[in-house]
Each structure stands twice: as C-alpha cells, then as structure tokens.
Amino acid sequence: xxxxxxxxxxxxxxxxxxxxxxxxxxGAATCSAVCSACGKCGNSVATRxxxxxxxxxxxxxxxxxxxxxxxxxxxxxTLDYMTITCPDGPCYGWVAVxxxxxxxxxxxxxxAVLLLGVNSSKDPRANIQNGFWGPKIIAWLGLIVLSFLIPxxxxxxxxxxxxxxGAILFLLxxxxxxxDLAHSWAEYCLAKIEDTDSRAWRGVLIGSTLGxxxxxxxxxxxxxxxxxxxxxxxxxxxxxxxxICLLIVSAISVHPAIQEYNPKAGLAQSAMVAVYCTYLTMSxxxxxxxxKLCNPLIRAQGTRTTSIVIGAIVTMLTLAYTTTRAATQGVxxxxxxxxxxxxxxxxxxxxxxxxxxxxxxxxxxLRQAVAEGSLPADALLDDDDESxxxxxxxxDDERTKTQYSYALFHVIFxxxxxxxxxxxxxxxxxxxxxxxxxxxxxWASWVKIVSAWVCYGIYSWTLLAPIVFPDRFDFV
Length: 476
Prior knowledge:
The protein is mostly helical.
C-alpha cells in the first residue's frame, strides 16, 4: 500500500517538482545564510545551528501531517484512492510522522558513517559536515520521498519498537548530560574561586544555588495549588514524590561521607538537578489531559488553535536546541572536549620563531628564489593565497581539532528524530481540531515524571559511586 504514495508524483508532476526544487533551494539558501551570518563565530557553531534548523523544520512538518488538512490534501493528490490504516484504526498521520522522521534519521546515520574518524577540518570529509548544504537538503528531501514508497507494515514495526527504543535512549542520554552539566558547572565555579579568590564567583555560585532552590520551591507550591486538587491523585503523587526526592538528594550531597570521598560535591549540583526535575514534573502535570479536571491551563486557554500552534513551535525549537547541545557536549560521553590549539602554519614539534616572523622569512626566501630564477614568479602568487587563507582561519575553529565528534553528533540527532516521532504518535488519537496538541497525553506526562525520578537516581549514583568504588576515583 505504501507504493500508492508514488501516485502524487505521477498525477501532478509539475507541482511536486516545483515544490521539491523550491524546498531544496530554500533550505540550502537558509543554511548558507546561517553559515554566512555566523561568519564571526566558529565554523562549527554555524554548522550546528544549520542542523538544528533542519531538525526543527522536519519536526514541524511531521506534526502538520497529523492535521486533517494534511490527510485530505494527500488523499486528494492520490485521487481519493489511498486508504491506509495504522495501529489504532484508519488514519494516515501516524504513518506519515514516522516516514518523515525515519527519512531524517537515515540521513543522519549515513552522515555518521561517512564522518567516522574525522578529527579536524583539514580532513577532506569535513566538508561533508560543514558544507554541501544544497546536495544535503536535496538528499534529505529525496529520502522523505523514498520513505513514502515503503510499505506501511515496516513503519508499524519501526514506530512501535525501534523508534520507541531510540526515544528512550535519547531521554537517558539527555539526563546523563544534565547531571554532567551540573557537576561541570559547580566544579568550574569552584576552580574560579580557588584560582582568583573572587567574590564575584562566590556570589555567582551561591546566588545560582539559592535561586534554583527558590525556583524549585515556587514551582512545587504552584503545582500543589493548581494541579493537586481533589481527585487528582496522580498529580499529588508525582508532586510529592518529586519533593521527597529533592530533599533526599540535597541531604546526600552534603553528607559527611560524601564530602570525604568527593569534596567538590554540594548543594550547587543538587540545586540544578532539583530545578530541572521539578520543571519536568510541572511540565508533566500541566500537559496532561483534562478529563479529570486536573489541568486548569487547558480550560483557561482563550484561542485554542493559536496556543496549540505556539506550544508546538516552542516545543520543536527547544528540542532542536537541546539536541544540538547534547550532541556537542561530549564530556560525559567520552568526546574530545576542548583542546590546546597550536598555530596552523607550524607543524613542527620545536617552535623557534613567532608565526608572523616565520611567514615574513618564508616570503623573503621565496622572493629571493624568484629573483635568482630558482622558482617561477607564480610561487609568489601561491604564497599570497596561502597567507590570505591563513588570515581567514579565524572563522574555522576546527583546523587543529574538531570541537565535537561528528559521528556521535549525527547518532544523537538520529535518536532525536526517534523521540520526535514517538512524542507525536504515542497514544495518538484522531481529533476534530485543526492541529493536534504536542505531548498532551498521559503517556507523555508519565515519561516526564519517570524521567525526573531517573535523573535523581543518576545524580545520586554519581555521589555514591566514589564510596562504592573508591579505587576508580581520584577526588581524594
């Protein structure tokens, strides 16, 4: 039945061709504009922004496929011949969401394979990561078209098992990186305080800790007031459990035994974990359905369609940003991290001259060789080109070493596409509204609640691990 989706290309070839080329040109132009606009920032930053935009556009496109308008439009393009079923009965959006995210996921997996072992922008394959945006956009759109030729049965298995497993891995990865960020932030502030004895950094560390705890308490109070009314046992249990976990991890972080094995542990890390998990819990109770009258936000919405559209766009934008940060924060995953960079034009182990002096000496030697007839005059032109290129290396921050693992970057983006597809389709039910709310289901709410509990568990283990395995840690 999936082969019937090729009918639109035969029925209206002019429209599909125009839309395909327009989308590819616009996408390539957007990515090129981003890279040009980010000329002052590193080449790696512009690349990450471009991939984040592609993920966001792909996610919004997949979300639109859940609307009745998209279903009717596609049925019209197939001359009303297409009748497709999905696990919960007749529908089309469920399968389309998985097709679109499958296409982008395969796109990232192919890039991950092609970019294995790339360590600097001097590697010719680095251009695949940082350039060729036109061909990459066309390849992405081509994969979307090809995905519509695959039978529906494949995506039923893909969506229910493979994409779901990828979504769980993506959530776990995000929680691990969050805990790593909490430790890195606190250790960075402590290092600044030890090195500079600065009151400003003390104020930043203490102020941020108190501020995050205050935000956690405020969100907890708001949840009890608005979302924990009579009959809302699920919300009451989730909010109370989060509060208990918050107090437990805070107490553990300052316990004398923990401080003995890890003196850098403290309330700063606990505060960041607490505010994030409290936010997850609040997001869960505020996005659940209102069938039990436990979510006043839904009843209080004025323009429902506008709020759903804005919420979906904000969700996709946040997801794109979070994925990009996770894909480049390689400390917890064994990434390269930051490195000390040597001058690009000096590849010797012994440095005896400053880069400018070496360049001047090289230019003088070339001029003398040309004057003596040992080298042709074109050698001076080649030297000028190399000098100009060296002057522009400020835009390329990866000539010596990549800022992140290219292959791991695309693997994480693949997991992100699985999460988007699962978020949009899990417990999906056809609605009569113009747009389907993103994440408004008990499944999505429970995922966030359980994610908060898992985050507390991961953070607690990072505190207890030095005690359980003292030989593997060198804090003392």
